[in-house]
Amino acid sequence: MGPLVIGLGALGVLIVLVVILMGMYNGLVRARVDCDNGWAQIDVQLKRRYDLIPNLVETVKGYASHERETLEAVIRARQQAVAITSDSAHAAAKADAENMISQALGRLFALSEAYPQLKADGNFRQMQEELTSTENKIGFARQHFNDTVGRYEERRQTFPTNLVAGLFNFSQREYFELQDAAQREAPKVSFS
């Protein structure tokens, strides 16, 4: 067993270590891509929500034009949410903006109780149903995103992968969380 055998053994160990490091790196990349995909799914549903809001406000204006403060609050909340950079690095800020939209929409839907004609309007009911469906899709997308962030963070923080994550600057991801327990619910839609 001369130096050649020792050299080949060391080369073999080095190759095994490189393969292990590549596996850790690729696993982190896959987890990061899953997070980005999860965020994209949330983003698609949020854009759908943003598109529905102006139509809903216009319908309500026809019946409750003197409820200007509520209508303006919905539009303001929508504008603030749209203005936030839509990437997973800004998940907390996006969640705060979505909280504001949920509150404003809750007040808007409460108006339908005071205006029976609005409540009976077919367009209004259809938009409420679409918005409720979209809220449910946002909830599922948010859950998927948070699951992928959890897997990514677990992988990123677990030894020895955390060494690879630190070496290649795999940054922390934020969960998409709602602050108020009441806002975790989709807006209530009632036709009674």
Brief synopsis:
The protein is mostly helical and 192 residues long. The chain has helices at residues 3-63, 68-83, 91-114, 116-120, 122-157, 161-167. Helix content is 78%, strand content 0%.
Topology:
Blueprint: H1 3-63, H2 68-83, H3 91-114, H4 116-120, H5 122-157, H6 161-167
Helix pairs in contact: 1-2, 1-5, 2-3
Distance between the termini: 88 Å
Per the principal axes of the C-alpha atoms, what is the gross shape? rod-shaped
Name of the CATH class: Mainly Alpha
Quaternary state, please?
Answer: single chain
Number of helices: 6
CATH superfamily: LemA-like domain
Biggest sheet layout: none
Structural class: mainly alpha
Number of strands: 0
CATH topology: de novo design (two linked rop proteins)
* Count of discrete domains: 1
**CATH architecture level-2 label:** Up-down Bundle
pLDDT averaged residue by residue:
87
Order of helices and strands: HHHHHH
Description:
With 192 residues, the protein is mainly α. The chain has one domain (3-184): de novo design (two linked rop proteins), CATH 1.20.1440.20. It has 6 helices and no strands. It has helices spanning 3-63, 68-83, 91-114, 116-120, 122-157, 161-167. The protein starts with a helix and ends in a 25-residue tail after the last helix. The model has no long low-confidence stretch (mean pLDDT 87).
